[in-house]
Design goal:
6 helices; conserved putative lor/sdh protein from methanococcus maripaludis s2 fold; 6-stranded antiparallel barrel; Elongation Factor Tu (Ef-tu), domain 3; 4 domains; elongated; 27% helix; alpha+beta; 374 residues; 22 strands; 4-stranded antiparallel sheet
């Protein structure tokens, strides 16, 4: 039996035990035996290796950072909305009486003027009916005259006169009703526009309420979108607006309507913009992106990498004060762009730290080196 390997294993096990479980005790013993000069040197080395943000502000050596001069510009902060195009008017024209269509149909896509005939219904026996009610009126007039004469001579009661007058009014009402029914046989366009469907086919028997055609007005065109609560106060009726379709077509118009009541589901407000469309190039129901002009706002264009967070989690930038110390300024991002981000909350002129802002804190003295802005 070999005893040496067993002893070596025991010694190694004890060494590991003290190293793992009694590390603090060993450290205290070693620290007590170390010379004071070594402890001082170690403390200086630790302080030298500390991050700049944790170094004492009493140190005379200033941290070198890269900064750039930034001057505020007036940014046209337009309200950006996404919506769709809608026809100014869209009406389904229906028959108000019954009859058979005797006019040739107009095909969808055709342009019709206001008052143009779209569907003509057969007159039928309405002329005879009109003649009949006119005769009834003449008869009622004679009856009323006779009743009045008899009443004046005391040969008839006053109620007979009233009955004759009622009969005359009923006959006159029948004439008006028949004439209106004849007038309803001609179905006309209520306004100028485009037919979205064919008019009723020749020979079709139409009843009251049957569809003759659907007509839409595309000039002017409406652009409809819904503005959130945070943006609605920046929109005013009459404000100039620009829009762009998915096809790339760009158009301009003005805000004609801003809802005073929010949608109960989305809590947004309806916005309508009217744009000219004389060539009917804009179709009903197209997706459109709108930019509504709003008051300009002072903002700085910064590199996105310049933004940082402070200990409270606020988004901002670190700037160099007049006395070459660091200050943290919270900012609000207004808009992204290809060149950077537009932010507000900074003074008109500021020296923004662009390199090293993560290694300094407010109050730390720095030595800024300014870079040129392309």
């Amino acid at each position: 039996m070999r005893i040496v390997p067993i002893l070596i294993a025991i010694v190694v096990t004890m060494a590991l035990y003290f190293f793992v479980f009694q590390r603090d005790t060993l450290g205290d013993i070693a620290g007590a035996e170390a010379p004071a000069e070594v402890a001082v040197d170690a403390g200086q080395e630790t302080a030298a290796m500390a991050p700049p943000a944790n170094r004492s502000t009493d140190e005379k050596a200033a941290m070198k950072v890269v900064a750039e001069h930034s001057t505020a510009e007036v940014l046209d902060s337009a309200v950006i909305l996404r919506g769709e195009t809608q026809a100014a008017r869209s009406v389904s024209v229906s028959a108000e009486t019954s009859g058979r269509v005797v006019s040739a149909p107009l095909r969808k896509g055709s342009y019709v003027e206001e008052g143009q005939v779209m569907c003509q219904l057969d007159l039928g026996t309405r002329e005879a009916t009109l003649a009949q009610v006119k005769a009834a009126v003449a008869e009622a007039e004679v009856g009323l005259s006779n009743a009045q004469k008899l009443a004046e001579g005391g040969y008839a009661a006053e109620t007979n006169v009233l009955s004759a007058e009622a009969a005359l009014e009923a006959a006159r009402a029948a004439i008006a009703q028949t004439e209106q029914d004849i007038e309803n046989l001609t179905i006309e366009a209520p306004f100028a526009g485009l037919l979205e469907s064919d008019t009723a086919e020749l020979g079709t028997l139409m009843q009251s309420g049957s569809l003759c055609a659907t007509i839409i007005q595309l000039d002017p065109m409406k652009l409809v979108a819904y503005a959130p609560e945070a943006e609605v106060d920046r929109i005013e009726v009459g404000t100039l607006a620009a829009a762009r379709l998915l096809t790339g077509t760009e158009i301009t118009g003005r805000v004609t309507f801003l809802s005073r009541s929010a949608d109960p589901t989305t809590r947004t407000f309806r916005v309508e913009i009217e744009v000219p469309n004389s060539d009917f190039a804009i179709r009903d129901g197209q997706t459109v992106e709108m930019a509504i002009r709003s008051d300009g706002k002072s903002a700085h264009l910064l590199k996105q990498s310049s933004l940082t967070l402070n200990d409270e989690g606020l988004l901002g930038v670190r700037i160099v004060d007049a006395d070459s110390t660091v200050a943290f300024v919270p900012v609000q991002v207004i808009r992204d762009s290809v060149d950077g981000v537009w932010v507000s909350g900074l003074p008109e002129e500021a020296d923004i730290i662009t390199v090293g802002q993560e290694y300094v804190r407010a109050g730390v003295a720095v030595e800024p080196h300014f870079e040129e802005i392309n």
